[in-house]
Amino acid sequence: MLSRKSRVASFVSTFITILFLVQLCGCAGIELSRYYKRGIVVTGAPVATQVGVEIFAAGGNAFDVAVAVGFALAVVHPEAGNIGGGGFAMVRDGHGGLVEALDFRETAPAGASEQMYLEDDDQVRPDASTTGALAAGVPGTVAGLYELWQRHGSLPWEQLVTPAAQLAETGFLVDDYLAASLEKHRESLAGFEATAQMLLTGGDAPSAGDSLVLSDLASTLYAIAAEGPDGFYKGTVADKIVSCMQEHGGLISHDDLKDYKSVWRTPIAFQFDSLTVYSMPPPSSGGICIGQILSLLQPYDFATLSPMSVEYIHLFAEAARLSFADRSEHLGDPDFYDVPKGLLAPPYLEHRADLIDKDQATPSQQISPGAPISGESEQTTHYSVCDSAGNTVAITYTLNAAYGCKLVVEGAGFLLNNEMDDFSIKPGYPNLYGLIGGEANKIEPGKRMLSSMSPTLVFKDGQPFMVLGSPGGSKIITVVAQAIVNFTRFHLSLAETVAQARFHHQWLPDILYLEEGRFDINTIQGLIARGHNVKEQEPFSDLQAVYIAEDGLMTGTSDPRGRGSVGGL
Ligand code: GLY
Asked: Mean pLDDT in the chain?
């Protein structure tokens, strides 16, 4: 019998061999549609997918895989994979079938205040909520992944973190996607010395084929592997975070780090046709908004519609407009704000449904948030994991913008988030995604900022049926809702569902966004004739989806817009 240490060593050497073969073959991007029996993992980065497959091969369950992939993405997908950010997990325990939501969203530091991004004359300080130390919330990822492992994991913690540490230590090959992403953000990354040292070479972005070694990140990950969350929230790494804050004018203190806690929450659950959908509750807006949109669409007969028909796109946009209006007013951290309970109540939604004009776009100025009965991109990344025991995990986590606030903690090798921008930094002032808010989402110490991240599980006859989620800021909500409609109402294959052209409406600005080059001129003219303000935009989001067939076999699709992959056993 191998000791735990030698088991880890043997696992790591197998892993590195396979990783080498994957990179040598250039397998990234080649994706065969196939079914898996033992377990499946779909992520936005092939090397992270491979880490997940290796954990399955080592006997891990879906939760073990989810933890290992979370750390691996923090190395190979630095724009969004993270230990300096936060996120959400929707999980289903195969034993007993309980579905729960794990909230490891960042919190506002104790020193945060409603006025912190405003000048004396009440004007918003440019970039303060998006760039640099002041933009960072207290990170939640390490605490969240540890909590997930403690409750559901089966392999030793160290075994799950070590592959990521090894990748950072020995280096990994930069692929075309990462090279292009680093080049796109080169100027802003170069603005911070520690960031430039970590991700750039002499000020230049690495080229595809270069090896990226992240030694400081490796040390941090080894500390987390050995000590669990204490290796991050206390000790040397915590000291480095606090020094970084002091040097760059941020607020996160030792107490903020020590006090951070992830929270188990009751998911938002709703019916769509014969399916039961579970998605993320506040502080995400995802579950409620997806629930509202799908419930508003529910009564319509789709028999004569298609995913590209003007009638469908119009109806969806009207429903999304109504839902995002509610989001702006009613949603925030439920530990700080009394989120109305009736936002998915049938009588309330019937009243909202009356506001949908079936033929003409309703100008957003004519739509206000409702009065429910009182009484719930690249910038983010999602992955979906499932095993034959019925354990199911959907995780969306983020630094907010690509590469977060662009600031690397010196000596600790990881990027900090700029999640504070997801608060309403001033009533009515749009955030990075053009979303506005007010009282419900104002900044308060210790509060979690409102999110759109929507890790989602769909059940059919009580059994897991789909696992899905996506990056994309506010677009996450419409992307996930459209995927459910495409797969279950329009009966597209999973690959078609994920590849299908996307559109988005979020009430304000009053614009119907269409993916560029994907909608024909007749459709565009049809939408304009109905009064929509149409704007084409480059393809968005990076959906990672799993379908579980009735016989328990699992298949997956990683969004062709990204560079992700599907793996399994
Ligand atoms: N940072 C994007 C979101 O949480 O919605």
From this structure: 94
Distance (Å) from CA 424 to ligand 1 centroid = 12
Residue 126 is predicted with a pLDDT of 94
Q: Which of 195, 220, 380, 398 is catalytic?
A: 380
Residue whose token pair is 């808010």: 437
* Residues 309 and 258 grouped into a single domain: no
State the DSSP code for 134. G
- Longest distance between any two alpha carbons in the chain, whole Å: 72
| Burial category of 199 from C-beta neighbours within 10 Å (exposed 0-12, middle 13-18, buried 19 and up) | buried
The C-alpha atoms of residue 391 and residue 510 are separated, in whole angstroms, by: 41
- Measured CA to CA, the distance from residue 57 to residue 567 in angstroms comes to 11
Q: Specify if 7 maps to a domain.
A: no
Report the C-alpha gap between 395 and 67 in whole angstroms: 10
DSSP 391-427: -EEEEEEE-SSTTTTS-B-TTT--BPP-GGGGSBSST
| Strands 512-515, 534-537: pairing kind | parallel
How is the beta sheet containing 544-548 ordered, strand by strand? Answer: 268-272, 275-279, 456-460, 463-469, 544-548, 554-558
In short, whether 398's Cβ falls inside 6 Å of ligand 1 is: yes
- Count of structural domains within the chain: 2
Asked if residues 563 and 48 have their Cβ atoms less than 8 Å apart, the reply is: no
DSSP state of 455: -
114 three-state secondary structure: coil
From ligand 1's centre to the CA of 401, what distance in Å?
Answer: 8
Same domain, residue pair 183 and 300: no
- Residue 242 identity (one-letter amino acid): V
pTM: predicted TM-score of the whole model, two decimal places: 0.94
Sign, CA torsion 517/503/103/440: positive
27 falls within a domain = no
Same domain, 258 and 276: no
The reply to whether 230 falls in a domain is yes
Q: Are 249 and 321 contained in the same domain?
A: no
Q: How far apart are CA 402 and CA 380, in angstroms?
A: 7
Q: What share of the chain is helix, strand, coil (3-state, %, to 5)?
A: 40, 20, 45
3-state SS, residue 457: strand
Question: Could you tell me if residue 31 is inside a domain?
Answer: no
For 407, the domain range is 47-264+385-423+433-441
- Cα–ligand 1 centroid distance for 332 (angstroms): 12
| 23 Cβ below 6 A of ligand 1 | no
Residues 115 and 222 in one domain: yes
**Same domain (yes/no): 141, 271:** no
> For the chain, which residues score pLDDT lower than 70?
1-33, 374-378
478 is catalytic: no
Contact 329, 361 (CB under 8 A): no
pLDDT value at residue 95: 96
Ligand 1 center from residue 334 Cα (angstroms)? 16
Q: Which residue's alpha carbon is at the smallest distance from atom 4 of ligand 1?
A: 451
341 and 295 share a domain? yes
Neighbours of 522 (CB within 10 A): 10
Kindly report the three-state secondary structure assignment for every residue of 462-493.
CEEEEEEECCCCCHHHHHHHHHHHHHHCCCCC
Q: What is the CATH number of the domain that holds 344?
A: 1.10.246.130
Distance of CA 350 to the CA centre of its chain: 30
Both 167 and 232 in one domain: the answer is yes
Residue nearest to atom 3 of ligand 1 (CA): 451
Coil, strand or helix at 491: coil
